[in-house]
Amino acid sequence: MTTLTDIKNIEDIKLMVDTFYSKVQKDEFIGPIFNEKIANRWPEHLEKMYRFWQTILLEVHSYSGSPFPPHKQLPIAKEHFDRWMEIFTETVDLLFIGVVADEAKLRARNMAEMFNYKIDYFRNAEKNNSKH
C-alpha cells in the first residue's frame, strides 16, 4: 500500500491530468463530448492542462489564456459538469492527499460551477436576443 502524498511538482500535475483525462476519454457520458471536440489534439490539450494546473496549484506561471471560451458552445449541461467533477474528485483522492490536493478539488468545483453558470447565461441571452 502506497502512502499518498500531496501534489508537489509538475510530475504530480502530469499524473493527475493524465489519469483524469484517461478516465474522461473512456467515460460513457462525457467521453464522447471530449473526444469529438478534441479529436486527435489530445497531446496539445494535455500540455495546456499541465500548464493550467501548474499555474493554479504550484504558482508556476506557465499558463496564459482564458479557459472559458472554448467551452462556451459545447452541448453540455449541469449533469455533465457533475460527472466531470465526480471523475476529478475520484482521481485526486486516488492519487493524492493534502492541502494542495484539496485546493485542486475546490478550484475544479468552482470552475465547473462558474462554467455552468456562464454557459446558461449565454444560452439564455441568445434565446432572448432571437425573440426580438
From TrEMBL:
InterPro entries: Globin-like_sf, Globin/Proto, Hemoglobin_trunc. Keywords: Heme, Iron, Metal-binding, Transport. It comes from Flavobacterium hiemivividum. This is Group III truncated hemoglobin. The lineage of its organism: Bacteria, Pseudomonadati, Bacteroidota, Flavobacteriia, Flavobacteriales. One of its GO terms (molecular function) is heme binding. Gene3D superfamilies: Globins.
